[in-house]
Write a structure and sequence with these properties.
The complex is a heterodimer of chains A (331) and B (563).
Chain A (H helix, E strand, L loop, with lengths): L3 E9 L6 E6 L5 E6 L4 E7 L2 E8 L7 E6 L5 E6 L4 E7 L2 E8 L6 E6 L5 E6 L4 E6 L5 E7 L6 E6 L6 E5 L4 E7 L2 E8 L6 E6 L5 E6 L4 E7 L9 E8 L7 E6 L6 E5 L4 E6 L10 E7 L7 E6 L6 E6 L3 E8 L3
Antiparallel strand pairs in A: 1-28, 2-3, 3-4, 4-5, 6-7, 7-8, 8-9, 10-11, 11-12, 12-13, 14-15, 15-16, 16-17, 18-19, 19-20, 20-21, 22-23, 23-24, 24-25, 26-27, 27-28
Chain B lengths: L1 E4 L19 H4 L9 H4 L9 H9 L7 E6 L5 H10 L4 H6 L26 E5 L5 E4 L5 E3 L7 H6 L8 H5 L4 H13 L7 E6 L1 H11 L3 H15 L3 E4 H21 L10 E2 L4 H15 L9 H17 L6 E7 L3 H6 L5 E2 L4 E2 L3 E4 H10 L20 E2 L2 E2 L10 H14 L9 E2 L5 E8 L2 E10 L1 H12 L7 E5 L20 H13 L10 H14 L1 H8 L18
Classes of the chains: A mainly beta (331), B alpha/beta (563).
InterPro entries (chain A): CIAO1/Cia1 (IPR028608), WD40/YVTN_repeat-like_dom_sf (IPR015943), WD40_repeat_CS (IPR019775), WD40_repeat_dom_sf (IPR036322), WD40_rpt (IPR001680)
Organism (chain A): Onychostoma macrolepis
GO biological process, one term (chain A): iron-sulfur cluster assembly
């Protein structure tokens, strides 16, 4: 069951700056990258190679930390250290800045669209998670501000099908949020990591959550509903992948098409994990299927599976590059 | 264990051994170009310490960027725990503007303590003893105890470069302990040296205590008066009385703003100003943009401050600094309001309100004395001077549990501007229950559009709308706490078998249990306007009834980093 990662292309996307994040559009045809040079670049395939289609350079005053495509693919949101989140609208070959969401006290670390397309979540070093709503006139309003974390909130991610949000923080915890009455609140806190939780990803069915951390592990969490029918929701850690990563694990991504789990690590390596299909679902077992030790010359900040083409993977690094890989499960 | 360490920017609370690791958080929080080794190449090594620690270091003439600290590995000190506990009490709006534990290199305390610059080496060693005292260790091994430097609450409010948000250090001046200290002192000194102790109780605090003890608001008023007077308090007043002034002045101010709205683009919407959480947030985050919209009318607490240290003082022939004025409030933010320089009487070197204690702190006082309000006998009559008394009852005002500003201004404006008498207001709930609208329409035209906006998320949206020029309102009652003052951070917590929601409902019912009065028809208020305010002249009266706001410079832009 050994797999392999083949390098398809390496692109110097943000010269002299970190490339912090890459995101595929829902159609899988475009890759957005963002970085320390305060710019966002949109890449598309021309023949066999990825070329820069568009540069969004004047949207932010500081590093752009993450970008996220709306479920319909028409909008792009960018989270920046300048404390704002910019919403861009795709127009033919270009993007125009639609609106700028303000309110966070300091650096915005992540932005994520809910699958419904009506809600947006942002999180920041100010320890808060904000949920925004967009109406028919493309007007954004704050719905809730939740302060469940004690420290910098690094990442937010929406459940693939339910209106449920998860956040990861420097306080080593993961919080799960749901809407109650007219407000969002933290319903569960997942403890277990021994250091900063950098990123989160749900499995394709939305039954499990994977988190990655500075403690060099990846944890898999499953929601358990107690048999007595009480509405007490609790998430348990059902699997910990340890001993695989040499340094901080900065990002983790669960492939919607194949169920493979990819990680981005501070030891410059990219890894792909597969699940053992014979294992007990309550105690899943993952094995490392592929590993490229020096995938980049510096820390890898992000890893992202293409949503349409199985096995196509993008990574990006502190050296300003992104790379496209092809993962084969059986080599 | 003694360890020497220079800490990374992202180091955590002193004493946590984890802070000695090279934190990867540093890479993200340290926008230092493409430098992979940023953590090691940084030109400044910074320390995350409590405000008072920093001030002590400054007072010894050191530059922070050349400091080595020897410290014993401390468990979470009571200081830190207290700081965390206190910090969580402030309204959500205020907390979010509070600075976190992150230090960016260019931020310095804008109010450094005056230091005696010493010549010599810039590197020094500081030792922290188990009891929390600081000693500078010289090269020859000699130790010198360092003085604790203090930074006042006001300085803290004015500063956006603060190192941590340890408000607890600064608010120890305002607690029920202080009231006890003053009462104790009164017993020990001669009558000529005694302070006149005045306590002004808010109706929201009364309602909260009423819910806790299953009494009515008026019963609480009578019994609390007895309890306090037993302790040595001389007068117990009710801030519903001073609130009448706030309501009347707000009404007048609104009419005045409405009439000049064509010439002054920032006259409307008028935004309520009684909530200090909202004011502090507005000053720090939106500054000059938002301040012109905010009503200059004083809050009931500060109106009472004017009344007690102004009128009352002169009537009784007592100097303002010989009066110790305490207010009982439903939140901690009111403590910050009392400390504002605008409410300091420099001529007398005294604050208009010396000490704010919360409903919760009153409960602590009762519990410490082993007294339950249920058992207190109602022996002393209610003070009538600055209270809305009717027989043995206290009167309140109609409208929201946060003062009723929307209610009073709406009715008054409808009558005065359009000749329309309104009996009952119809509230329309918007996005959520903390956002409500009231509209006055006639013949299809909107004459007045008012809103009540409570809680941070709604305030955010209101301000953003205002910035985009899309706000349709003439007046907005803005409150920092969801559900308003009855749900303030200083109110009593629910019992074990009660939810927050249930308790809040109970408190609301008890609050509304008081019969109401109309400020315009209050003869005593009218009399005070005549005998006191008119007699001092328009300018002085304005100072007594109104206040001003100050935008606070922000210095959080990363572009300000000096490398």
């Amino acid at each position: 069951m050994k797999g392999a990662l083949e390098l398809l292309q390496r692109v110097s996307a943000h010269p002299d700056a970190r490339c912090w994040y890459v995101a595929w559009n829902p159609a899988g045809t475009l890759l957005a990258s963002c970085g320390g040079d305060r710019a966002i670049r949109i890449w598309g395939k021309e023949g066999d190679s990825w070329e820069c289609k568009c540069v969004l350079a004047d949207g932010h005053q500081r590093t752009v930390r993450k970008v996220a495509w709306s479920p319909c693919g028409k909008y792009l949101a960018s989270a920046s250290f300048d404390a704002t989140t910019c919403i861009w609208k795709k127009t033919n070959d270009d993007f125009e800045s639609l609106t700028v969401l303000e309110g966070h006290e300091n650096e915005v670390k992540c932005v994520a669209w809910a699958p419904s397309g009506n809600l947006l979540a942002t999180c920041s070093r100010d320890k808060s998670v904000w949920i925004w709503e967009v109406d028919e006139e493309d007007e954004y309003e704050c719905v809730s501000v939740v302060n469940s974390h004690m420290q910098d909130v690094k990442h937010v991610v929406w459940h693939p099908t339910q209106e449920l949000l998860a956040s990861a923080s420097y306080d080593n915890k993961v919080c799960i949020y749901k809407e109650e009455d007219d407000d969002w609140e933290c319903r569960a806190t997942l403890e277990g990591h021994e250091s900063t939780v950098w990123s989160l990803t749900f499995d394709p069915e939305g039954q499990r959550l994977a988190s990655c951390s500075d403690d060099r592990t990846v944890k898999i969490w499953k929601e358990s509903t107690p048999g007595d029918g009480s509405s007490d929701e609790s998430w348990k850690c059902v699997c910990t992948l340890s001993g695989f990563h040499g340094r901080t694990v900065y990002d983790v991504a669960w492939c919607r098409l194949t169920g493979a789990l990819a990680t981005a690590c501070g030891d410059d390596g990219v890894r792909v994990f597969r699940e053992d299909p014979t294992a007990d679902p309550e105690q899943p077992v993952f094995f490392m299927s592929a590993h490229v030790p020096k995938a980049h010359s510096q820390d890898i900040n992000c890893v992202s599976w293409n949503p349409k083409e199985a096995g196509l993977l993008a990574t990006c690094s502190d050296n300003g590059e992104f790379a496209i890989w092809k993962y084969n499960s059986d080599s | 264990m003694i360890c020497e360490a220079s800490f990374d920017v992202d180091a955590r609370v002193l004493g946590d051994p984890r802070e000695l690791r090279s934190s990867p958080g540093t890479k993200e929080n340290f926008h230092h170009g493409n430098n992979h080794q940023a953590a090691h190449d940084q030109p400044h090594k910074l320390l995350r310490v409590h405000v008072c620690f920093c001030a002590e270091l400054l007072s010894s003439g050191l530059r922070l960027d050349s400091l080595e600290v020897i410290h014993r590995s401390l468990p979470t000190t009571s200081h830190t725990a207290a700081a965390k506990a206190m910090a969580s009490h402030f309204s959500g709006v205020l907390q979010l503007t509070d600075l976190d534990d992150f230090i960016t290199p260019s931020q310095e305390c804008v109010k450094p303590v005056k230091v005696e610059k010493k010549q010599g080496r810039s590197v020094a060693k500081i030792q922290i003893e188990d009891d929390g005292s600081y000693f500078q260790v010289y090269q020859d091994g000699q130790k010198e105890k360092l003085e604790k430097a203090k930074i006042t609450l006001n300085d803290c409010l004015a500063c956006s470069g603060c190192i941590t948000s340890a408000e607890s250090v600064l608010i120890t001046q305002q607690s029920h302990e202080e009231l006890y200290r003053v009462l104790r002192q009164n017993k020990q000194v001669s009558s000529s040296e005694q302070k006149v102790v005045v306590v002004s109780v808010s109706p929201q605090s009364r309602a909260s205590l009423a819910a806790h003890y299953s009494l009515s608001s008026s019963e609480v008023a009578r019994r609390l008066t007895s309890f306090l007077k037993n302790l040595g308090v001389h007068h117990v007043f009710d801030t519903s009385f001073s609130r009448s002034f706030s309501l009347l002045e707000s009404q007048r101010e609104f009419l005045e703003r409405f009439r000049r709205k064509e010439v002054d683009k920032k006259a409307l919407p008028m935004l309520a100003s009684a909530c200090p959480g909202w004011i502090c947030y507005a000053e720090k985050t939106h500054g000059e943009f938002i301040l012109p919209y905010i009503s200059t009318t004083r809050s009931p607490q500060q109106m009472m401050g004017s009344l007690v240290k102004g009128y009352f003082a002169s009537q009784k022939g007592v100097s303002p600094q010989n009066i110790y004025h305490v207010t009982v409030m439903p939140c901690y933010d009111k403590k910050l309001e009392a400390s504002r320089p605008d409410f300091y009487l420099s001529d007398y070197e005294t604050r208009e309100v010396d000490c704010v204690i919360t409903s919760g702190e009153v409960l602590k006082m009762l519990e410490e004395k082993n007294v339950s309000l249920r058992d207190v006998e109602e022996v002393t009559p209610l003070d009538t001077m600055f209270s809305n008394v009717c027989g043995e009852e206290l009167l309140g005002h109609p409208g929201s549990g946060s003062g009723g500003y929307l209610h009073h201004i709406y009715k008054h404006a409808a009558k005065q501007l359009f000749g329309i008498g309104v009996d009952e207001l119809t509230y329309k709930t918007m996005k959520n229950k903390d956002f409500q609208e009231v509209t006055l329409e006639k013949d299809g035209q909107i004459l007045l559009q008012f809103a009540a906006v409570y809680g941070f998320r709604n305030i955010q949206n209101l301000v953003q709308k205002l910035k985009r020029g899309k706000s349709p309102y003439h007046f907005v009652e803005v409150m920092a706490c969801p559900s308003g003052c009855l749900n303030g951070g200083g109110q009593l917590k629910p019992s074990s078998d009660q939810t927050n929601k249930e308790l809040l409902q109970q408190v609301e019912e008890l609050y509304r249990g008081e019969r109401t009065s109309v400020p315009e028809q209050d003869s005593r208020v009218a009399e005070l306007y005549q005998s006191w305010l008119e007699s001092v002249g328009e300018e002085k009266a304005r100072l007594l009834l109104h206040t001003q706001y100050h935008a606070i410079e922000k210095n959080t832009s990363g572009l300000g980093i000096k490398w």
